[in-house]
Amino acid sequence: MSNTSRIHAFHPERYGDVKSAVRALLHAIGGEAKAAAACRVSKSTLSEYGNPRYDERHMPLDVVLALERAAGEMPVTEH
User: Fold this and answer.
1) Could you give the C-alpha distances from 3 to 6, 10, 14, 78, in angstroms and in order?
2) Which domain holds residue 49?
3) Does 79 fall in a domain?
4) Is 31 left (phi over 0), alpha (psi -120 to 50) or beta?
5) Are 21 and 75 spatial neighbours (Cβ–Cβ below 8 Å)?
6) Which residue from 12, 49, 75, 78 could staple onto 24, CB 3.0 to 4.6 Å apart?
7) Chain centroid to CA 49: how far?
8) For residues 55 and 31, what is the distance between their CA atoms, to the nearest angstrom?
9) Dihedral (C-alpha) 19, 15, 67, 30: value to the nearest 10 degrees?
10) Phi, psi of 20 (to 5 degrees)
11) How many C-beta atoms lie closer than 10 Å to residue 3's C-beta?
């Protein structure tokens, strides 16, 4: 499959926007400690998912879904 046939374009410059949505999700659930209790990853890993300095670290979809369910908000999937 060529890159031109992708449904969505890949834009690395938008990483910051996604990380902002992750931070909003962590805030909505009550912080990293509460988020870690509601999913399979640690507090420090969650912090990296929202930190623009860790541009290679992104929240897996199962973690996004678990946290959005717990928070009752969907800032990442609505992004």
Assistant:
1) 6, 9, 18, 24
2) 13-71
3) no
4) left
5) yes
6) 75
7) 6
8) 21
9) 0
10) -65, -40
11) 7
* Tokens representing residue 31 in the block: 């912080």
CB atoms within 10 A of CB 31: 12
Q: What is the pLDDT of residue 41?
A: 98
What is the amino acid identity at position 16?
Answer: G
Residue 15 has pLDDT above 90, yes or no: no
Question: Mean pLDDT over all residues of the chain?
Answer: 87
Give the residue carrying structure tokens 């670290």. 57
- Is 6 inside any structural domain? no
The string over 51-78, giving b where at least 16 C-beta atoms fall within 10 Å of a residue's C-beta and e elsewhere, is: eeeeeeeebeeebbebbbebbebbbbee
The answer to whether residue 2 sits within a structural domain is no
Q: What are phi and psi of 74, to 5 degrees?
A: -130, 55
